[in-house]
Predict the structure.
Amino acid sequence: MDISVHINNVKGSQMAAKITGTFTISDHAFKFSAIAFGRIGGHNIGAKISKTTEKELKKLGHDPNEVIDILQKNLISGNITLPEGLDKESFADT
């Protein structure tokens, strides 16, 4: 499953940050939010989607849990696009 992730906003620091954005599957865009934690015990991201998004994903034949797993992996690996003016270095260890 190919998911593209776009970050809209990041608030916080390298230790902990709240992320909002969208992800796209087969030309369908969905909103998500996530909390990113770093350093202690390694990097971790917990992403959430709304119940409405879960229902829409199911209608399209996708497993919402699988989508969240892929979304989180993309966020952790940096496989994302950022709005103009936001650098990964401002919120992620490089």
Observations:
- Strands lie at 4-12, 16-25, 28-37, 44-48.
